[in-house]
Design a protein that fits this description.
Strand order of the largest sheet of chain B: 2-1-3-12-6
Strand content of chain B: 5-15%
CATH superfamily of the largest domain in chain B: Periplasmic binding protein-like II
Oligomer: heterodimer
Strand order of the largest sheet of chain A: 1-2
Largest sheet of chain A: 2 strands, antiparallel
Helix content of chain A: over 70%
Number of strands of chain A: 2
Shape of chain B: globular
Structural class of chain A: mainly alpha
CATH class of the largest domain in chain B: Alpha Beta
CATH superfamily of chain A: MetI-like
Number of strands of chain B: 13
CATH class of chain A: Mainly Alpha
Distance between the termini of chain A: 35 Å
Largest interface: A-B, 33 and 41 residues
Distance between the termini of chain B: 88 Å
Radius of gyration of chain B: 26 Å
Strand content of chain A: under 5%
CATH architecture of the largest domain in chain B: 3-Layer(aba) Sandwich
Structural class of chain B: alpha/beta
Helix content of chain B: 40-55%
Largest sheet of chain B: 5 strands, mixed
């Protein structure tokens, strides 16, 4: 190998590394730096060490946001994944009707998240929405979904499910399509029923698409801002104020940027730990 | 021959004139200064305020041929933040408009120039006396430095439907106190049967923590002696007056049933939409929305819309008319500071103030404008009413304090009381701590 050739790989990855450093590492470093300072009204008022972190860990609002985020993420992840998988299995065949239905299912995902959340807000609104009409026959016409803490959380989960199950469906459909049909045919000849084929063939061969879908949805739900901001405003009584919404308020509305950066760093670390945990869970079975 | 000579002479003269012109033009252009201004208004769009700004700029440029004003319209919600960030980066505009809610950003940075030596010190004696709201200048002064010049003011008023008030057998006099408003709301609420959901609710509220606005609780607390901020911006939200006000809002939902529970999730805009749609009989709304609500009234006659001052705790003491609005700030590091200050001064002189009121449809901020014939018309009556409220009970928030989300803190307190999560005292202590943490 010529001396100049040895540097070719470095030269090739250098642009990507520079972009990564400029757009990810530098903001992370700056964010961490500000998290150790008292930054208010865009002015750095001095070093406070871990003060911002202690303040967050002692805050009732942060503890509440943590619980809200956990509940929202776990419930949304499970329901969205289950619905997405069910849709993928149901719409796997390429008949004209199934292709049409796939397009229909994709519509919520193609609508901008902000617009979708606003639409649902109008649907759920008791005074002007559709819900009183739909729930009226069951004697629930006067119940106010968004003004009730549990109702608001359910609405938020519904928003996530309504929009993101389409994403789960696409990812899982791609995985289903990659399974050779001969395996199913052979199993059928051997007398395997649909449930047996699902547990013994489909699920094991779908581990990687399932992992990718779960990790992607998980990161998305933990870091979601638009849905709680638009649909519920974090309320009522902070019942739907997620960690990211709390961080957004600290940074962009309260102008307490030191504390907001500290929370951003904590959320980032939590993301890394949780994704690593999820990967470890999948690796435990030595399937990947 | 003579003709040829004269033609050649004319051509030579034209060539000389063109050459001189070509040489002089760049020098003239070079001598011209361009002042950049960030505002939420776009002078090239239709609208009263936009046309007022356009006329002011044209008139200023005529009188100051060496100065050009370049307007860069901005989204109003992030204008102040962008200005302070631009200042930190060294590329802020020469002038920026800042709303009072975000003035803390300006007063807590060194982004704004002191307008006292640049503008106010040169005023003739009668100009300050002409101001209807001289207190506004004081509220924008920190450490003796005037950091912004008020341009247009607005406030919150109690809007109500005259037809419903009349049908309930009441007069506007009944709306002078909060107790009176509660009783009026009871009588104006319309139900098909005692247990049925009302078709018209007596009192509208928007209690969401997003896209919030002033509510009765906020205004009652601000109107209490000492307001909601003490010395050095120490938050004082957990006061007996604030507790009574938050309890009153919770009672409207739980006990009196004159406000829908849905109010907990309604933004200010949602509630205003409901008011315009005829679902609410009364509501605290910014006076600037008056014309829009009249225009969009559905199912009722917009001419029945009326406004009253913010009620007080007792009839002899009106509630706070909280003055907010837009002011112009000159960038402290602007290389064109003198020219920027000159335009700010021009934008707020008597002629410009008249334009802001007509065609701008803004509340007059000077006595001379309030006395002009165009302000005496029936169309200008709402502006006159608000002007009178300013004079009677105008109140200012301390501009240096961070109250950007204090209204939302009050909303959260009311939500928690309605949901039974906290009692009023605890909810207000949480709100007080949240506001204090931002200072």
């Amino acid at each position: 190998m010529r001396r100049s050739d040895r540097f070719v790989p470095y030269r090739l990855i250098a642009p990507a590394l520079l972009i990564e450093a400029g757009l990810v590492l530098a903001p992370l470093a700056i964010g961490f730096y500000y998290s150790l300072h008292n930054v208010r009204f865009f002015r750095n008022r001095g070093f406070v060490g871990a003060g911002n972190y202690w303040r967050l860990l002692e805050s009732d609002a942060v503890v509440n946001a943590l619980i809200v985020t956990a509940v929202f993420t776990v419930v949304s992840l499970l329901l969205t994944f289950a619905l997405g998988f069910a849709l993928a299995l149901h719409l796997e065949r390429d008949s004209r009707m199934h292709v049409f239905m796939r397009a229909v299912v994709l519509v919520p995902y193609m609508i901008a998240m902000l617009v979708g959340s606003m639409l649902l807000k109008w649907v759920f609104a008791q005074e002007s929405g559709l819900m009183p009409l739909l729930l009226g026959p069951f004697g629930l016409g006067e119940s106010s979904i968004l003004a009730d803490p549990n109702g608001a959380m359910a609405a938020l989960v519904f928003n996530a499910m309504w929009r993101d199950s389409a994403f789960a469906m696409i990812m899982l459909l791609a995985g289903l399509k990659s399974i050779p049909m001969q395996i199913f045919a052979a199993a059928r000849v051997d007398g395997a029923g649909p449930l047996y084929r699902f547990w013994r063939i489909t699920l094991p061969l779908m581990r990687i698409p399932i992992l990718i879908t779960m990790v992607r949805l998980f990161i998305h739900f933990v870091n979601i801002l638009t849905m709680p901001l638009i649909l519920t405003g974090g309320g009522p009584g902070n019942a739907t104020e997620t960690l990211v919404l709390h961080m957004f308020r600290l940074g962009f509305q309260d102008h307490v940027l030191g504390t907001a950066n500290a929370l951003a760093v904590l959320i980032f670390v939590a993301n890394l730990v949780l994704v690593a945990l999820l990967l470890a869970l999948f690796r435990q079975n030595r399937r990947i | 021959m003579t003709r040829l000579r004269s033609v050649l002479a004319s051509l030579a003269f034209a060539a000389v004139v063109t050459s001189v012109g070509a040489l002089v033009a760049p020098i003239a252009a070079y001598a011209q200064t361009t002042v950049t201004m960030w505002t939420f208004l776009d002078p090239n769009r239709p609208g009263g305020r936009e046309q007022a700004l356009k006329t002011i700029i044209e008139s200023f440029e005529r009188q100051n041929p060496t100065i050009r004003i370049r307007v860069e319209p901005q989204v109003w919600t992030t204008l102040a933040e962008k200005f302070v960030l631009g200042h930190s980066a060294g590329n802020a505009p020469d002038i920026a408009w800042v709303n009072l809610e975000n003035m803390g950003l300006i007063l807590n940075s060194d982004a704004a120039a002191d307008l006292n030596p640049l503008i106010v010190r040169n005023w003739p004696a009668d100009r300050r006396a002409d101001l209807l709201l001289p207190g506004w200048l004081d509220s924008l002064t920190a450490n003796g430095r005037l950091q912004a010049m008020p341009i247009m003011a607005s406030t919150w008023v109690l809007m109500y439907r005259r037809d419903l008030l009349r049908d309930a057998g009441l007069t506007p006099e009944s709306l002078r106190t909060w107790d009176g408003v509660t009783e009026a709301a009871r009588r104006m609420t319309r139900r098909a049967s005692p247990d049925a959901q009302p078709q018209i609710w007596g009192m509208g509220l928007g209690l969401s923590q997003e896209r919030f606005s002033a509510t009765p609780a906020v205004l009652a607390a601000i109107g209490a002696p000492g307001g909601i901020f003490g010395d050095n911006c120490r938050a004082r939200l957990a006061t007996p007056e604030a507790a009574r006000a938050v309890q009153m809002q919770a009672d409207w939902i739980l006990r009196d049933r004159v406000t829908p529970r849905e109010a907990l999730s309604m933004s200010s805009d949602d509630a205003i939409d409901q008011f315009a749609a005829g679902r609410f009989a009364m509501q605290i709304i910014a006076n600037s929305r008056f014309e829009q609500i009249q225009r969009t009234a559905a199912g009722w006659n917009g001419a029945d819309l009326a406004m009253a001052p913010v009620p007080g705790v007792s009839a002899d003491r009106p509630g706070a008319t909280l003055i907010v609005g837009w002011s112009a700030v000159a960038w402290s590091r602007s290389p064109r500071l003198q020219q920027a200050a000159r335009f700010i001064d021009y934008m707020t002189n008597a002629e410009s103030m008249a334009l802001w009121s007509a065609p701008g449809a803004q509340v007059p901020m000077t006595r001379s404008v309030a006395a002009r014939p165009e302000m005496q018309t029936a169309q200008a009556a709402p502006l006159r009413e608000v002007s009178a409220m300013f004079a009677a009970s105008g109140a200012y928030m301390p501009a240096a304090c961070n109250w950007s989300r204090t209204f939302a803190d009050f909303n959260l307190a009311t939500q928690q009381v309605v949901l039974g999560q906290r009692n009023v005292a605890d909810a207000l202590r949480v709100a007080e701590r949240a506001t204090q943490d931002r200072q």
